[in-house]
Specification:
Layout (H helix, E strand, L loop, with lengths): L1 E7 L7 E7 L2 E9 L4 H11 L5 E5 L4 E4 L2 E4 L1 H8 L6 E2 L2 H4 L2 H12 L8 E4 L6 H9 L3 E4 L1 H6 L8 H15 L19 H6 L1 H5 L3 E3 L2 H6 L9 E4 L4 H9 L4 E4 L3 E2 L2 E2 L2 H12 L8 H11 L4 E4 L3
Parallel strand pairs: 1-3, 1-4, 4-7, 8-9, 8-10, 10-11, 11-12
Antiparallel strand pairs: 2-3, 5-6, 12-15, 13-14
Helix pairs in contact: 4-5
């Protein structure tokens, strides 16, 4: 049996373990949250190194993208470099393949995404493949990177402007402790009422809200009007939470095992374990070929009050 473990800076309340069969291989897939404790995460990674088939890094990005430029968070690199033997991934390879295919599938097979759809992407640099595909589909996209990472109420309206801002800010922002930019540990459960009210308009104006679940949840208003959420990691509690906010549908980009979808980092770990190759040697075409064999498709959840 192959073992894939995600070590997450997020809350341990979301921990989960499943055993599934994929392409004839048995997998034990699990998530371990360290409640925002960076040193505890490093210790757990060192403990797992050499003992499992692949490790995913959750609750943190290592690499983000804007155009053809890649930026690395120092905290993420520290976590990745603490693992010496086992393949370790952050989900960025899967975001660039599976999440592009998710938007294409929704365009082709449903009426949920179409030309002119008003889309709020809470962060585009950590999901640039999805951002590019919405843009290519001629959706009306608002990129919320400054709003949701920095708390600056400035919506970015074009990919070109996003690239320019990223080039100016990311070299310095990636040096900051990651918890300053993204909710970790108990902060994932906290609510900033002032900013929630201040940023409500961006959610209300959108038909589709897309991106990382914790960034979506960070300033989610109490009442919305039937918007669609496109995200990855959701538990049964998350689904009930969104239902109570007036969301009409949830689209999850990663498959659901025993009632919840896992993060892209976990699923990328599964693909790496199946391919049996170093992460750096895996091409986009190899990911896409394996995704086709696995027949991963978006899951559309209808929420009814």
């Amino acid at each position: 049996m192959k073992r894939v473990v995600s070590v997450s800076l997020g809350t341990s309340r979301r921990d989960h373990k499943v055993i599934v069969e994929l392409l004839g291989e048995q997998f034990e897939i699990s998530r371990i949250g360290v409640d925002g404790d960076f040193d505890r995460a490093l210790a757990k990674l060192r403990e797992l190194d050499g003992q499992v088939d692949a490790i995913g890094l959750g609750g943190i990005d290592v690499f983000v993208y804007a155009g053809n430029k890649r930026y690395a968070f120092q905290d993420g690199l520290k976590m990745m470099e603490s693992v010496k033997t086992t393949p370790v991934v952050d989900g960025s390879g899967l975001k660039n393949t599976l999440e592009r295919e998710t938007v294409k599938y929704l365009l082709r097979e449903t009426d949920l995404v179409k030309k002119g759809s008003r889309v709020l992407m809470v962060s585009a640099v950590d999901r640039f493949g999805m951002a590019e595909t919405f843009d290519e589909a001629e959706c009306d996209v608002t990129f919320g990177d400054l709003i949701f990472a920095a708390g600056i109420p400035y919506p970015i309206k074009t990919l070109e402007e996003l690239k320019e801002i990223a080039q100016k800010l990311l070299p310095e922002m990636t040096k900051l402790p990651f918890h300053m930019l993204y909710p970790t540990g108990k902060k994932q459960e906290a609510r900033d009422d002032e900013k929630t009210k201040k940023f409500a308009q961006y959610y209300e104006e959108a038909e589709i809200i897309a991106g990382d679940f914790h960034l979506i949840k960070r300033y989610l208003p109490d009442e919305l009007g039937g918007q669609i959420i496109i995200t990855n990691t959701t538990t049964t509690d998350d689904i009930e939470y969104l239902k109570g906010k007036g969301i009409s549908k949830i689209v999850t980009t990663t498959p659901v095992f025993e009632g919840r979808s896992f993060g892209t980092n976990v699923m990328e770990g599964v693909l790496v374990a199946l391919l049996g190759k170093p992460w750096a040697d895996i091409s986009t075409d190899e990911y896409l070929d394996l995704l086709n064999k696995l027949q991963f498709k978006p899951r559309i959840i209808e929420l009814k009050s």
